[in-house]
């Protein structure tokens, strides 16, 4: 059983209510962002207000790692695009079994320790790839490992010494200044999303938590 947040101005539809998951219904994107941190999947109702559903999906995509399933009417399928920020969609009126299958697939994906997602930033450790807003990020081996380690510890302050030992290895003798150099390069490649990597003065760096990233964005 998964914890599912349903974002809609309507009551929970039968196709969701009949499932064995724990369903929490909220009426706003702001509340969904708060509840999403404890949820396995967020389901966004796009059958009434498609423009509002798009804004909600984008806010959830920027604000955290919880996968988003969009329910959309058949008439709205033609306007869907990757920049909406949802992970999967299903047509309104689908059988409960179909929606259940989509939720289970998204839950398994979000539990994959090799896959890290923070808003537009996606790191796949198994495939050794990174992307930003769907576009590949051209990272060196060390930049990739640094980004991955930071994303594995959101909200936690990581000293330069810790980063050197965990990313470069205990046998590295080049000093901690190399961390600053690589962070600058990473931020340059993240462009407008460089705020995900914050500086803690005289200590080191921290990767933004979901809520901090949403406020900054």
From TrEMBL:
Keywords tagged on the record: DNA-binding
Gene3D superfamilies tied to this protein: 3.40.50.2300, Winged helix-like DNA-binding domain superfamily/Winged helix DNA-binding domain (1.10.10.10)
Keyword Ubl conjugation attributed: no
Database matches in InterPro entries: CheY-like_superfamily (IPR011006), GlnR_N (IPR049170), OmpR/PhoB-type_DNA-bd (IPR001867), Sig_transdc_resp-reg_C-effctor (IPR016032), WalR-like (IPR039420), WH-like_DNA-bd_sf (IPR036388)
DNA-binding region per Swiss-Prot/TrEMBL record: 113-209
Domain of life: Bacteria
SMART domains, per the entry: Trans_reg_C
Residue ranges of domain OmpR/PhoB-type in the record: 113-209
Keyword DNA-binding: yes
Transmembrane segments: none
Protein name per the record: Response regulator transcription factor
């Amino acid at each position: 059983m998964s914890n599912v947040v349903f974002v809609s101005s309507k009551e929970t539809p039968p196709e969701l209510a009949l499932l064995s998951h724990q369903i929490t219904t909220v009426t706003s994107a702001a509340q969904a962002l708060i509840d999403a941190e404890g949820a396995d999947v967020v389901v966004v109702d796009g059958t009434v207000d498609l423009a509002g559903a798009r804004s909600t999906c984008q806010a959830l995509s920027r604000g955290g790692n919880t996968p988003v399933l969009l329910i959309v009417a058949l008439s709205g399928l033609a306007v869907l695009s990757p920049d909406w920020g949802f992970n999967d969609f299903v047509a309104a009126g689908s059988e409960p079994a179909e929606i259940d299958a989509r939720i289970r697939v998204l839950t398994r994906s979000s539990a994959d320790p090799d896959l890290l997602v923070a808003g537009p930033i996606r790191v796949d450790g198994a495939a050794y790839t990174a992307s930003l807003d769907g576009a590949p990020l051209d990272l060196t081996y060390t930049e990739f490992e640094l980004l991955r380690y930071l994303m594995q510890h959101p909200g936690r302050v990581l000293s330069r010494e810790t980063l050197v030992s965990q990313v470069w290895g205990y046998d590295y003798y080049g000093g901690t200044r190399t961390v600053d150099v690589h962070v600058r390069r990473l931020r340059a490649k993240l462009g407008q999303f460089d705020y995900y990597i914050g500086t803690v003065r005289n200590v080191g760096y921290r990767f933004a938590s979901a809520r901090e990233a949403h406020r900054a964005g």
